Automatic annotation (TrEMBL):
<dbReference type="InterPro" id="IPR050109">
    <property type="entry name" value="HTH-type_TetR-like_transc_reg"/>
</dbReference>
<feature type="domain" description="HTH tetR-type">
    <location>
        <begin position="14"/>
        <end position="74"/>
    </location>
</feature>
<dbReference type="Pfam" id="PF00440">
    <property type="entry name" value="TetR_N"/>
</dbReference>
<dbReference type="InterPro" id="IPR036271">
    <property type="entry name" value="Tet_transcr_reg_TetR-rel_C_sf"/>
</dbReference>
<dbReference type="InterPro" id="IPR023772">
    <property type="entry name" value="DNA-bd_HTH_TetR-type_CS"/>
</dbReference>
<dbReference type="InterPro" id="IPR001647">
    <property type="entry name" value="HTH_TetR"/>
</dbReference>
<keyword id="KW-0238">DNA-binding</keyword>
<protein>
    <submittedName>
        <fullName>TetR family transcriptional regulator</fullName>
    </submittedName>
</protein>
<dbReference type="InterPro" id="IPR009057">
    <property type="entry name" value="Homeodomain-like_sf"/>
</dbReference>
<feature type="DNA-binding region" description="H-T-H motif">
    <location>
        <begin position="37"/>
        <end position="56"/>
    </location>
</feature>
Length: 184
């Protein structure tokens, strides 16, 4: 009789995360942030709501992890800080334009305005990894990188909220030039 290790019941963790993250973004895209409840996300993922709550204690925590996954990996390979930042801006514009991502990003920020615990989650789990990577890649201090993040994310989400479409073309080039002035 051979002894084999029993695997945990259910889907593998990475498969479950991909399923839930995909369902989250689809639900956000189709119904909007406010109507994308945990019940609806669970139904879209074909899993029990309790399965989601075992991994993410709130909608905000789920969205933070979903966005963290959506924005991986940050393109930091370029010969100069200016080229790194320009590549990151193009990457951010493209990602925010993906179905559900801009809606999730904007919605979770609105919720965080009145929820200190969610602000902490967004700060530590979403913003800090990118801030630290950009500080290292750009050789810039924390305050400067935070300003760059604020200008970019705020501008891109504002455009999407006001027009329903991501920023494109000439405006991305102008935004990139404006932000690059901070590094010069």
């Amino acid at each position: 009789m051979s002894v084999s290790s029993a695997s945990a019941p259910g889907r593998p963790r990475s498969d479950l995360h991909a399923t839930v993250f995909g369902a989250t973004l689809r639900t956000m895209h189709e119904l909007g942030y406010a109507n994308a409840t945990m019940d609806r996300i669970a139904a879209a993922a074909g899993i029990a709501k309790t399965t989601i709550y075992r991994r993410w204690p709130s909608k905000g925590a789920l969205i933070a992890d979903c966005l963290l996954e959506a924005f991986r990996p940050l393109p930091l390979e370029a010969p100069t800080p200016e080229e790194i930042l320009a590549g990151c801006i193009r990457f951010l514009v493209a990602k925010i334009g993906e179905p559900g991502v801009g809606v999730a990003f904007a919605g979770v920020f609105v919720d965080a305005m009145s929820d200190p615990a969610l602000r902490e989650i967004l700060s530590t789990r979403l913003q800090d990894p990118y801030r630290l990577a950009l500080q290292d890649a750009l050789g810039e201090p924390e305050e400067r990188v935070l300003l760059i993040i604020d200008v970019l994310v705020g501008t891109l989400l504002h455009r999407m909220g006001m027009t329903g479409a991501p920023m494109g073309g000439t405006d991305v080039a102008v935004l990139t030039e404006m932000v690059l002035r901070v590094l010069r």
